[in-house]
Amino acid sequence: MKQGTTLFLLMFFVPWMLRAQEAPQTISLQQAVEFAIKHNKELQSSQMNIDLYRQKVRESVSQGLPQVNGTVTYSTNFNYKMNFGGQAIKMKDQSNLTVGLQQLLFSGQWILGMQTSKIAVRLTEQEVETTELDIIENIYNSYYTVLVSERMLDILRQNLENMNEIYNAHSSGSKLRAELIYGDNNTTMNLPLDKNDTYDVDTGYYTVHIEIKDGAARFVDSPCPDHICESFGWLSNEDQTATCLPARAVLTIVPAD
């Protein structure tokens, strides 16, 4: 069932993404879920099966209701006269009405048929619910993947801008260095940017790791619980700063002496 749902999602999203390249389109998460549920062929087939099984239940119930049968017969002799002993006798028309009433008192086959039809309805309803949940799960996963991809694209753009700034800083010949201030005593440590290296500094709270590469500095492999310091990325321009509050450490790009 999940394979069929995944195939449908691909058939839905790929054409939509191709159209989005031609003209920007916006679709919310709820709209995507509603569209997928509405147009899923497997789900439509299951819903039709529910209607079919419900009809079978009604048919089974009707077989146990009182059955009334009626028969009407009519025959005519078209006013024909028969001579009998010198006397003309006119043949009369004839009609007959028969009515019968039947009531099913007990039938194991009828009871089994009703129970089977009801079970089929419940199973099909559960199948529909399971299919809907699978569709919603896949839509949410796909939507989350899109959001993550957009975020990664923003990060790549930011890194490209930072690399361009690093290149421009080197091209202009500006002299900068990294300055690490850490600990309760605000100890200062100068880190040159003209040599690629890695520094491990014990701040009294955590041991922070500073990477110097291509004229830029950053926090890497931070032992702190939130890793916010790593999100600052590469620092290469004057007055750019990254902070690690749990480690009591501040990394800043300053002019070289």
Task: Describe the model.
The structure is a single chain. The protein is rod-shaped, with a radius of gyration of 42 Å. The mean pLDDT is 77. The two termini are 68 Å apart. The longest helix is centred in the middle third of the chain and has 65 residues, at 108-172. A four-stranded antiparallel beta sheet has the order 6-5-11-10. It has a three-stranded antiparallel beta sheet with strand order 7-8-9, with no helix packed on it. The protein has a two-stranded antiparallel ribbon with strand order 1-4. It has 257 residues and is α+β, with helices and mostly antiparallel strands. Helix content is 48%, strand content 26%. Strand 5 (176-182) and strand 6 (187-192) form a beta hairpin. The protein is built from five helices and eleven strands, in the order H-H-H-E-E-E-E-H-E-E-E-E-E-H-E-E. Helix 1 crosses helix 4.
Give structural attributes.
257 residues; three-stranded antiparallel sheet; four-stranded antiparallel sheet; 5 helices; single chain; alpha+beta
Q: Give the overall silhouette.
A: rod-shaped
Largest sheet: 4 strands, antiparallel
Query: Uncertain runs with pLDDT below 50, 5 residues or more?
Result: none
Total strands:
11
Q: State the helical fraction.
A: 40-55%
Strand order in space, largest sheet = 6-5-11-10
Strand content: 25-35%
Q: What is the typical, i.e. mean, pLDDT?
A: 77
Order of helices and strands: HHHEEEEHEEEEEHEE
Query: How many DSSP helices?
Result: 5
**Chain oligomer state:** single chain
Query: Radius of gyration in whole Å, from Cα?
Result: 42 Å
Structural classification: alpha+beta
What's the end-to-end separation, in Å? 68 Å
